[in-house]
Structures are given as C-alpha cells and as structure tokens.
Design a protein that fits this description.
The complex is a heterodimer of chains A (263) and B (400). Chain A is mostly helical. In chain A, 76% of the residues lie in helices and 0% in strands. Chain A is built from twelve helices and no strands. In chain A, helix 4 (60-93) crosses helix 7 (134-159), helix 8 packs antiparallel against helix 9 (175-204) and helix 9 runs antiparallel to helix 12 (235-262). The longest helix of chain A is centred in the first third of the chain and has 34 residues, at 60-93. The longest helix of chain B is centred in the middle third of the chain and has 18 residues, at 197-214. Chain B is elongated. The two termini of chain B are 36 Å apart. The chains are: A mainly alpha (263), B alpha+beta (400).
Chain lengths: 263, 400
C-alpha cells in the first residue's frame, strides 16, 4: 500500500473490528448462557454453575447423540479421505476422457443446495432401506465431505514439484519407494487437512441428518435442533459451546502446524 | 556395486583416448556413452523433437550439448536419463542399451536446473538417499555423505534443510547427491542457469575441478556458449532436433561447418554468395572475396558463405595499404561498443550487410561513428561453409 493510504488506516481498523464483532458476537453469546444455574435463556444469567455441562455429558439423550456424531465423524473422515485422495491423484495426474465431467460431479455437493441433496437422498434411501442406519449416514456424509478432501489434496498435489520424483528415480528409487519417501511425506499436510475438513463436515451436518434420523441414529446437531424447538434447556448452550470450541480448534490445527513448519 | 578407486590400475587401462585436444581426466572411472539413431517424436506435431542423433562420448569426457531453446538438447538429455521415452534408437552406456530401461535402474546421476532437493530432508539426508537405495551400510553411508559434502565444501551444512541454504549451496548439495554413489555418467541440465553471473563462474570452476578429480563422464546441457567453451572437452551443437557439429571448443570456433554454428558460437562476419568455377573466389551481390586455400567446404559453383571472426579483421588507417592477398571491403561505422579490454566496431556495408570488428584497446584504430573505413583480412583467416535451406548435418565422433 502507498504511504498516502495510511491516512485511512484508523478508519479501516475500526470498521474491521465492528464487522468482526457483528459476525462473531451472536455465536459467542452461547458461551455465557451455558454457565447458567437455572432453566432459562435470560441474558445475562442470574447465577453461574456447571450443571448443564454435567447434563450434557451424562444424560443418555445427550451423551448418545455426542457419541453417535463422533463415531460417524471418524468413519466419514477415514472413508472420505481415502476415496478423496485417490480421486485427487487421478484428477491431477491422470489423462482420461470425461475428466472434467467427473471433476464437476465430484465437486457438485459443495454447490448443490444441501436441502436438495437431503430430499433426494431420503427418497433413494427409503427404497434401499438405508434410512436411520449407520451405513446410510456414512454414505450420505461421505458424499458431502468428498469435495473438501479432493480440493485440499489436489491443491497439495499441484504444488508438489514433479521434478522431485524424477530426481528420486535418477537416484535409484523404484516407484513405491518414491511414493513412500518423497511424494507422500510432502503431500501429507494436505491429506490431513482434508481429513479434518471431512470430520467437521460430518460432525456439523444437520439437514441430511434430520431426514435420515431414527431413534438409533440421532446425531448431536439433530438433538440440538429438537431441544431448541421444543424445550428451554440450557444444556444446548453447553453443547454448542463445546462444539464451537472443538471445531474451531480442529480447523485451526492445520494452520498452527503449518506455521510451526515454517519457523 | 563395485567402483574403481583413483589408484586402481584397471581404471587407467579402461580409458580410451578422447578425440581432439580436450583435457580428459587422468583416471577415467566414467564409461563410454553412445547415442545411435535416436529419435523422439511427439504425437500431433509434424516435426520430431529429436531426429536421428548419433554421438559417441568417450569415457571420462566432458561433453556439452549446446544450442538454443527447442533445439532438442534437453530432450536428448532426458532420454539418456530415462525421463522421456525414446521413439526409436539406442542409448548405449558401456555397450549396454538402456533406452527401454526404467530411469531408476540406469545408474546415472542427474543435476537439475532448479536443484530438485527433497525439501523435507536435510542436506545430509538428501545425499544419503541414493546410498540407501543401494543398501549401503549405515556407517559407510555416513562416511561417504561426509566425504561428498566435503568435496563441495559444505561439510558444516549437513544438518540444514534446503530452504535454509542459498541457491549456490543448494546446487552444490545437488551435485554432492548426484556423485556420492559414483554413477557411470553424470548428466547436468543447465545447472547454473538459476544463479547470478559471479556465482555461476565460481561453480563452473568447481565443476571443472570435480570432473578432473572424479574422472566421470559428464554430459552438460546449456544454451550459454561461453560456458560451453570454458567447461567442455567437446561440444555438440544442436539445432532443430539434430547435431550440426561436434568438436573441441577451438575446432568449433576456428572451423565452424555451418553458418548456424559460426553464429551461435561467438560473433562472426558472414558474407553469402556463390563459389566461382575455379574455386578461388566467392562472388557476392556487390563484392568478390578471395578464399583461403584448403579453407573451403563448398564445391565450385555451389552457394556458400564466407565466415570470419571479428578479431581476425582489422581496420586500415588512412593511406595504409593492405597486404596483396588480403580481402579489402569498404564500410561505414554505425556503432562503437566499449568493452573495457577491447572494443567492438559495428559496420554497415554498401550492399546492406552488417559486419563486426573486435579490436584490443591498446591496438585500436581511431574509427568513430559515422566514419567511412576500409577493413581487411587474410583469406586464410576465413572459412567457407555451405549455405542453403536444408543445412543440418548428422555428426558422429569419428569425424576428424
């Protein structure tokens, strides 16, 4: 920026702070609300306690929902990362007909409105008897998470210098060794990043989960939706705070690692 | 894999005499490399990238592939390395055809223009990598890595990551990595192209020293003719997918065989015309030049070009008479370029051609911009080369 632009910087700073506050405050409201001592959403809370955290972690309805979401999230993470990484390798390095069409199809879940995906999935899964099953959830969430893995792994592959593989070959390394010692270590940060995105995508997902739910399969976001619309229970504030903190940490993790690398 | 030590007498016996006057290494641990009828065609392009290249490189020789971009020199090098598939032809390393062998089995060394060091490994780990592929013991690896880094003066930088090294240091680590396992042939693809001039000259002498000490066969690709002249035992000049001429640096400079070679290597004056029936004179549009005896490769009656190097022409002072057999031409000075130890005088001839005279400052004439001058040279200082549309030749090293 030119020196003359400095005249405006205090104004820009103020605007940035105001916009940031405006965007973040509604979410952060949930944090003080979670420490209330009675069944009320009055703000500010009239008393402070950890009661509702205890409820969240011990009451079966809430605890089961949390466990379901975590189990599902981990399974989606593994499946989406494996499939998405393989797809990324093919899309970046492969030459085959219909590549751009396949690329578009794989990335479509990021663009198509999730309600459309949810309704369509529900219709098809009814016929396949997958509604309310762990497998059904796994398949649906993996489809939603795939684009994120493909994008991050493709990006990592594209910044990978192909000449490194040529160098490794000239030094006597056969293809598997090259993959194991040169390509994979350098692409791993992208793969892990994609894995984190896949987990968070599944953990946060509510629309498809609402359609596919059953008494056996009720994820945390679905439980939270039911709670807010049918009762005044600050446990949801505790749940929200925990989800907020955990997801934020997970998303920040790759960034922190990358900055540590550069030091 | 066994390798000869510097004092191994069998290594000296293996050595065959290299052509020309280049300085081959005293103990040649390198092997001979031959290219036979090498062709590379890409689909959907009419002109092959490499057409029918034949070349014999002697053990321990420093051979440079020189040419402009797109001339096929890098493609040929990549075929030797195994990075590019061969369309047809043979690549013989120590009499073994490797053209269809995968790159990782060819036992060659490669240094890239942009270093290609593994960014997630330290300098020492980079250099150790090829030894690990060859199942060398850990102690032996440590010893040889240290020796290789010492030979490029980087023994204190072993624990550094590539991003903690300067460009010149990275390139030296790349060289150490490529020589630590004593490959049969060392290939270098414009390794100094990414470095500034001063660093380039420093590393050029390092490379020359390494070649002398190791005795490996070097194949070096560059478009920088000064670099080629300085480093090579012999140079293969590439043009449009083929080799126009192979020879020692002074052979190529003093006796170019085509106009392309004459103009690519150093500056030159070129006069085009037809050789007279008696073969003694070249008739141009507005001039007639006496040809030196034995200096012409063009048959009488054919079209050709007279080539003279700028330092072999002198500007006559007013009233000075040229020697009787010298060629004399009139010209106008358009530019004088001062180079410190010498100066270049750019000339325009009356028929529109351009000329160049190079004078050492202490012997310089007083010619200035705008002056009309006469230039002269001895016919023996010129060569006559073919000039026409279909000009590149296929050369093998057996030609004297």
């Amino acid at each position: 920026m030119l020196d003359t632009d400095r005249r405006l910087s205090w104004f820009t700073k103020v605007m940035v702070v105001l916009v940031g506050v405006y965007l973040v405050i509604p979410t952060l409201i949930v944090i003080p609300l979670s420490f209330t001592d009675r069944a009320s959403f009055a703000f500010p809370p009239r008393g402070w306690s950890l009661d509702y955290y205890r409820t969240f972690l011990t009451e079966p309805v809430w605890r089961d929902a949390l466990l379901t979401s975590v189990k599902l999230g981990l399974a989606v993470m593994v499946l989406a990362t494996v499939l998405g990484s393989a797809a990324a390798v093919a899309l970046v390095r492969g030459k085959f007909p219909g590549k751009s069409l396949i690329n578009g199809l794989l990335l479509a879940p990021m663009i198509v409105p999730v309600i459309v995906i949810a309704v369509a999935t529900f219709g098809v899964f009814l016929r396949w008897q997958l509604v309310g099953s762990f497998t059904g959830f796994l398949l649906a969430h993996t489809v939603l998470a795939l684009p994120f893995v493909i994008v991050t792994v493709s990006s990592a592959l594209r910044t990978f210098d192909d000449r490194l593989e040529l160098a490794a070959a000239s030094l006597g390394a056969p293809p598997m060794t090259r993959l194991r010692r040169v390509t994979l270590p350098l692409v791993l940060p992208g793969v892990l990043s994609g894995a984190v995105f896949a987990f968070v995508t599944s953990f946060d997902e509510v629309v498809v989960a609402l359609y596919l739910q059953s008494p056996d399969m009720r994820t945390l976001p679905v439980r939270m939706y039911t709670s807010v619309t049918s009762e005044t229970d600050p446990t949801i504030a505790a749940a929200s705070t925990l989800v907020l903190v955990v997801t934020t940490l997970l998303i920040l993790l790759p960034q922190v690692i990358r900055r540590g690398d550069r030091a | 894999m066994t390798q000869a030590t510097p004092s191994d007498p069998t290594a000296a016996q293996d050595r065959t005499i290299t052509q020309g006057s280049g300085g081959a290494a005293p103990t040649s641990r390198g092997v001979a490399l031959s290219l036979r009828n090498l062709v590379k065609e890409y689909p959907k392009t009419s002109k092959p990238a490499v057409q029918d290249v034949n070349l014999d490189i002697a053990p321990g020789e420093f051979m440079t592939f020189l040419g402009p971009s797109g001339s096929g020199k890098t493609t040929t090098l990549n075929m030797i390395a195994g990075f590019v598939a061969v369309t047809s032809g043979e690549i013989l390393i120590a009499d073994e055809d490797v053209a269809r062998m995968p790159a990782h089995q060819r036992d060659i060394g490669m240094v890239f223009q942009h270093y290609a060091l593994f960014p997630h490994m330290t300098a020492a780990q980079n250099v150790a990598f090829p030894l690990e592929q060859r199942k060398v013991s850990k102690d032996e690896i440590d010893r040889r890595v240290r020796a290789a880094l010492a030979s490029v003066h980087l023994e204190d930088y072993a624990a550094r990551l590539p991003r903690q090294l300067s460009g010149g240091q990275q390139q030296r680590v790349a060289v150490a990595r490529a020589i630590v396992y004593n490959p049969r042939v060392l290939l270098m693809d414009e390794p100094l192209g990414a470095l500034d001039k001063h660093l380039r000259e420093q590393l050029q002498s390092e490379i020359t020293r390494l070649h002398r000490e190791l005795g490996l066969t070097f194949v070096y690709v560059t478009h920088d003719q000064e670099e080629a002249l300085a480093l090579s035992d012999r140079i293969a000049v590439f043009n449009e997918g083929g080799i126009e001429q192979v020879g020692t640096p002074d052979e190529l400079y003093e006796n170019p065989r085509t106009v392309f070679v004459a103009e690519f290597l150093g500056d030159s004056n070129v006069w085009r015309g037809t050789v007279s029936p008696d073969g003694r004179v070249l008739k141009g549009s507005d001039f007639e030049l006496v040809l030196g005896s034995g200096r012409s490769q063009v048959d009488p009656g054919r079209s050709g070009a007279v080539v003279v190097r700028p330092e072999r022409i002198h500007i006559l002072t007013d009233g000075q008479v040229a020697a009787r057999d010298h060629n004399v031409l009139e010209a106008t000075v358009t530019e004088v370029v001062y180079l410190g130890a010498a100066r270049k005088v750019v000339l325009d001839f009356p028929w529109g051609g351009r000329g160049l005279v190079r004078e050492a400052m202490r012997l310089a004439s007083s010619a200035d911009r705008g002056d009309r001058v006469r230039v002269a040279w001895a016919p023996q200082e010129s060569v006559v080369v073919p000039d026409g549309p279909d000009m590149y030749e296929v050369e093998s090293a057996e030609d004297a």
